[in-house]
Amino acid sequence: MTMVKNIVWLILVLLVQWGLLQDLPLTIYGNPYLYLWFFLWLPFGVSRTGIYGIAFVVGSIMDAFEQSGGAHTLACLGLVTAKPWIENTFIGYRKSDTNEGVSHLALAPYLTTSAVLVVLHHTILFTVENYGFENGQLLTLRIIVSSLLTLVLLAITHALFSKKYAA
To answer: Could you tell me the CA-to-CA distances from 119 to 78, 116, 147 in Å, in that order?
Structure first.
């Protein structure tokens, strides 16, 4: 049942990403990527092989829709590679047999952890999309604007769906 629930959440997040967020007029300077919430929402107990598979599939779906030539896949794989170390650094060690994820945290540690992961993801994504650091000012602007927009959406989503804030 948990796997079906995760697939449904993933489909919903991708539909919101493509139905609402992808055609915002800010896309030249930045775009919020709500689909990153799915990676933050996954419980700590997901196997490394499973999370790499999920990252590859989600990144490939985003690449197919955006025609970004693998940039999203590479950024998603980078995010899930760094995720355990970032989580351990900011929120401490968690047993892998617990069914909790970052979604169980209060807002401040959630945003701290999310901010590092989002900036990492966006740095990889936009560097690959821009073919390197040739236009450093635009690259930096895109990373900052997209990261801020994504973090605002992640904070709203966390407040709406986190078990910490459920009544």
So the answer is: 11, 5, 6
Which two three-digit tokens encode residue 21? 């967020």
All structural domains of the chain with their residue ranges: 2-161
The values of phi and psi at residue 101, to 5°, are -135, -170
And the tokens for 127? Answer: 């560097």
Count of other CB atoms within 10 angstroms of residue 71: 21
CB 44 within 8 A of CB 98: yes
- Would you say residue 65 has pLDDT above 90? no
Give the predicted TM-score (pTM) of the model.
0.86
Residue 62 · residue 15 · CB < 8 Å: no
SS3 of 24-61: CCCCCCCCCCCCHHHHHHCECCCCHHHHHHHHHHHHHH
* Paired strand residues for 101: 43
State which amino acid sits at residue 120. Answer: L
Look up residue 103 and give its DSSP letter. G
Q: How many residues are present in the chain?
A: 167
